[in-house]
Specification:
The chain has nine helices and nine strands. The chain is an alpha/beta fold. A six-stranded parallel sheet has the order 5-4-6-7-8-9, sandwiched between helices. Strands 1-2-3 form a three-stranded antiparallel sheet.
Length: 251
């Protein structure tokens, strides 16, 4: 459609087309309003697990607005989960009405965030709502967290022949993760006070998860044969569940 633009003596810009006259300043304002409305849409924040990066969500394509969170180090190793949750709210612009998807540690942090912001939906993948859901042996070993040489362990981590693609990705993410954050999380996870309830929380869990055993939890979506890396290995099964659950958030 052909348009002719010109300015009037009053400095107003107009456009005339087959459809009629249009004030370009008003049109620009309308466009800005639509853009602002778009950016104010509900966001689904994607939180990763311990020693992982946003690469965990490789292959997860969503038809809604998402924010793939990369963890930054806490200002102090004495920060509690509550302190870090507030840090996430401020740095990731998590707002009332947003939703959270969290894998493993990310699910625990999602629960903690929901205590401070009115979160619409929480979806936990291979995660938990209480520290007692953690495998007892790992819980008993948590005291080692502050003392392990995490940076050295990261440098030593490498792929070996025959390793699955999922484990190769896990190794790659571990090498790239922040050792200070890993040390902090390992030091505090076993002392987390958990989430009592949320009006719309759903758990997706594998029956072979060795970190958060299935027998200790109430699960809404069970993935047969799924282990703690199923966010990577069982993406084709998990992705449709996430789209069905969160697909209406921006409508």
């Amino acid at each position: 459609m052909r348009r002719i633009r010109f300015s009037s003596a009053l400095g107003k810009r107009f456009c005339v087309s087959v459809g009629g006259w249009c004030d370009l300043d008003e049109a620009a304002s309308a466009c800005l309003a639509r853009e602002a409305s778009y950016h104010s849409c509900v966001t689904v924040h994607l939180l990763t697990g311990l020693g992982a990066t946003s690469a965990l969500y490789t292959g997860y394509e969503f038809p809604f607005l998402t924010n793939r969170v990369e963890y930054s180090r806490p200002s102090s190793l004495r920060w509690s989960f509550a302190d870090y949750a507030q840090h996430l709210i401020e740095t990731q612009n998590i707002q009332s009405g947003d939703s959270l998807i969290g894998v493993s540690l990310g699910g625990m942090l999602a629960c903690e965030v929901s205590k401070r912001v009115s979160i619409s939906k929480i979806t936990l993948i291979s995660s938990c709502t209480q520290r007692v859901h953690l495998r007892p042996l790992l819980s008993h070993l948590s005291f080692l967290g502050p003392h392990l040489p995490w940076l050295w362990l990261q440098r030593c981590a490498c792929s070996v022949p025959g390793m699955s693609e999922a484990r190769k990705l896990a190794v790659s993410m571990f090498r790239e993760s922040d050792p200070v954050f890993v040390r902090w999380a390992c030091s505090h996870a076993a002392n987390w006070d958990g989430l009592i309830e949320h009006p719309d929380r759903v758990s997706i869990h594998g029956d072979r998860d060795s970190v958060f055993p299935i027998r200790r939890q109430i699960i809404q979506h069970l993935i047969p044969g799924g282990d703690h890396l199923m966010a990577i290995t069982r993406r084709l099964e998990i992705l449709p569940l996430l789209i069905e659950r969160h697909g209406g958030n921006n409508h």
